[in-house]
Automatic annotation (TrEMBL):
Organism taxonomic ancestry: Archaea, Thermoproteota, Thermoprotei, Thermoproteales, Thermoproteaceae
Alphabetized UniProt keyword annotations: Membrane, Transmembrane, Transmembrane helix
Stated name of the protein: GPR1/FUN34/yaaH family protein
Regions that span the bilayer: 12-33, 39-61, 68-88, 94-111, 144-163
Primary location recorded for the protein, binned into one broad class: membrane
Amino acid sequence: MANGSTANPAPLGLSGFALTTLVLSSFNAGLLSGQGVPVVLGLAAFYGGLAQLVAGILEYFKGNTFGYVAFFTYGAFWEWFYLTVAFFPQSLPYVPIVLWAFGIFTFVMWIGTFRANAALFVVFLLLWITFFLLAAGATVAGGYVGILTALAAWYTAFAQVLAEMWGKPAGAFLGPPPVKPKK
């Protein structure tokens, strides 16, 4: 499996992000009753939040600045979401400004994926679109794009796990970078 090296923390972070995003986005898209939204809170605190924070810290120690910034930031996003919904519901009318800010952040991070791989490029593309749709009040559309985002993130996570388990380079499953580096 990992043949003596440290594990890749990215699949953990991507999976925590994907599952939490899928569940919340299913509510946003209207596929599930809004009364069940509290079920997202536990996921936000622990899998979307804590697991991504841990993945970010592990990426830091691996020297991966992009992974560190992405996982730690989105882990903090989910912790913020949990705290806001659970303890400060009076601040919910101001959530759109936070979503706009995360949309801008995600758009900038998306530019960083141009030379990464196609799978990560798609995850960040769909995510900034999701944030902007939700910030603009297009909750149902944002929910559906959020579901696509979650599926793309899970694909990216599982591609890395399977590549390692099958002894293949991860790039074989993740696709080439959208912008080729100059030689």
